Amino acid sequence: MHGSYSWRQLLPNTYLTDMFLPTNFDAEPFWVELDRAGIRTAVLDMPLVRPTPLQHGIHAVDWGSHDSQLSTSITAGTSASTTVERLQALGAYPQRQCDTVVIRHGHETLVKNIHEGIDLRSKALSILLDDAPDVLATVFAETHCAGHHLYHLHDTADGRYDADLAARCGGDALLHVYEHMDRALAELLARIPGAASVMVLLSHGVGPHQDGSLLLPEILRRLADHHRPTPAWRTARARTYARAAGVRRRMQRRLGRRNRVDLKIRNVDGSAPWYPLPNNDLYGAIRVNLQGREQRGRVRRGSDYEQVLTLLSDELLALRHVHSGEAAVRSVLRTDDLYPGPKRDWLPDLFVEWNWDESFADLTSPTVGVIAGVDTPIRTGDHRLHGEVFAHHLPLAATSPIPVQQLAHLLVDEAYRRRSDTPPGETISAMRPAQ
Ligand SMILES: [Zn+2]
Ligand SMILES: [Zn+2]
What we know:
Blueprint (H helix, E strand, L loop, with lengths): L7 E3 L5 E4 L10 H7 L4 E4 L13 E4 L11 E4 L4 H9 L8 H8 L1 H24 L4 E4 L3 H8 L13 H6 L4 H19 L6 E5 L2 E4 L7 H12 L4 H23 L11 E2 L6 E4 L5 E6 L14 H15 L2 E2 L7 E6 H4 L11 E5 L7 E4 L3 E4 L8 E4 L3 E5 L9 E2 L3 H13 L8 E4 L1 E2 L1
Parallel strand pairs: 3-4, 3-6, 19-21
Antiparallel strand pairs: 1-2, 2-9, 4-5, 7-18, 8-17, 10-11, 11-14, 12-15, 13-14, 15-16, 18-20
Helix pairs in contact: 1-12, 3-4, 4-5, 4-7, 5-7
The protein binds zinc ion (ZN) (2 copies).
C-alpha cells in the first residue's frame, strides 16, 4: 500500500538505492481521517510518518523515536497552543539515534538515556492527557532501542553475552528497561478514564541478531556465476553506467543542485540476473533483473521469471551451516503471494527467512561451496515474528491471530462509534497479531 519496507530502498526503474524517508510515503496515517471528522487526537512519536497538519489535534514527530529520521516537530491546531508550549518546555529527548550513542558513548550511556527517556515520555504523555484528547496514540521507543542494543546483557546463552558490561549496567539491563516501561504504562493507564478503550500493542518479539544477510551478496553472485554467468560486456557496460551516474551526482553537488542526502545513493549490479537489496537484516531480500521492469533486464517475464524464483528458492534452501549441518534458511517467501498491492514493483521479489536459531559464520551448499564471514553487527538483538495486543473495551476476539495492519481500522471504528454514542463493548483480550 505505502510501498515502504526498509530504511533503504531501490529507486524504481533504476539500479540505485537510496534512503527511504517518512517524507517519501504518500499513505495517510489513521489520525488524519479522525481529525477531518472533528475528533481530537494527540499523537506522539508514532514512527516513520511525516508531520501531519491537524486542525483539532496535536502531532509530535521524532521527538524520542528509535532511528529518528526527521527533525523533531510539533504540528497542532490553535486550540492546542498551550499544550505545545508545555511540550516544548520539556526540551530535547536524551538521544536521536541509539546506534550512534552506543558507538560514541557506550552502552552505559544508552541505558541511562533510555531510563531518562521513559521518565520524560511519561511527562509528555501527562501533558497531552491534561488536554483530554478523544484519542491518544504513542509509541514507547525505549523498549525497541533496548531490544536492539541490550540483548547481549540479558541472554547468558548468547555468544556475545558480556558479564562485565552487564555488571556495569546494573545487571540485566534489558529486563530493567522492560520493568521501568511496565511502571510507566501502569501510570499512564491509571490516568485514563476506566470507560476508555485501550489498546496496548507489543509489536514483535526480540532475539539474538544473527542472520545471513551479510553473506547474501556473495551467495547470489556465486549462484549467478553457476546458473547464469554474466557476459563480460554486460559487466563492463554496468560499470560505465554506474561511473557516469557517480560523476553526474558529483557534478550536480558541486553545482549546488543536489544536497547532502544524495551522498547516500548507492548502485546495485545492473548486469547481474539477480541481486540483493537492502532490507532490515532479519530477512534477506532479492530482486530479479526483470525485462520490462528494470532498465536492462536479463530475465524474461513469464516462465523464465518463474524458473528463476524456483531456482533461487531451491538453492537457498540447500544452504547449511558448516559447524552444525543445520539448514541456514527456513523458507523463501514470494512477494507476489504476500504483498500484491499497487506498489508491488517497488519491492524485492523474494524474501529469505534465515534460521535465526543458529549463529552465522560459514555456510555451504553443493553449488556455492563454502562462504565464510562472521557478522558482528552493532545491534546484538533483532526483531522476531509475532507480538501481542492487549485490549480493553474493544471488539477483539481473545484467541485468533490478527494481522497487525488491521489494528488501526479497529481504533478508527471505535473512535467513530464512541462519537456516535453507541454502547461500548466489554471485551478484554490478549492475542497475537500475525505479521
Ligand atoms: Zn533505537
Ligand atoms: Zn528495530
